[in-house]
Amino acid sequence: MAAPVAAPAESSVETAAEAPAADVEPAAAPVVEEAVAAPEVPAFTADWRIALPFSPVAGKLTTVAEVTGDVPDWLVPGLQILAVNGTAVDTIDDIPGLLRQSQDPGPAPGLTATLSTSADAGAAPVDHEIELPVVHTVALRSGAEFVTRWTNGAWQTEVAALPAAYVGEMRVGDIVVGHVSSDTRMDSPNAMKDVLEAEISAGATTTTLAVQQGGEMWVMAFPLPE
Q1: Cα(219)–Cα(224) distance, rounded to whole angstroms?
Q2: Which domains does the chain carry?
């Protein structure tokens, strides 16, 4: 006679289907970092400034310390400069900025300004007109810089700075006479700016310049910013 089969005991374990769902926190959304574009630096900048032929005495900022170049007889050390074009100055170094705000030299080699001066403390001011020279600058992103100024009756462009990594033949102080491929002479205040603008816009990586160095003329290739 077969042995009886015991009835299955009730399970104390809930099936997966019967078990309550566990609380599950939703997965955090991935953080997407937006790329920030680096500011673009122009290949070169062109500007102009006034080159004062006099400088202030330390501690007496409106008193002329020394004069340089060809200046009028009334402009002497010890002279006090009180105003430029009717605007009072706190220091002689204010003069270029004040003139820049109100005047544009265009192609002229200088700006005419009226300086109110006094030779002695407390004396009535005297107005004098003077033409102050303008210097045009072209600064390349690479670190090279060229300055153009009126010299001996003509515009002259000089190498003012060269990149630290430059290994060519050009030297600071060289005079850039012309641009070879376009047969352009550097005989205007904006000639260097115009040449570089045309070359860089065309995608050139070098330009060829006629340069006066040590009294001799040379043709030199010069690298341009990419």
Answers
A1: 16
A2: 47-134 (2.30.42.10), 140-223 (2.30.42)
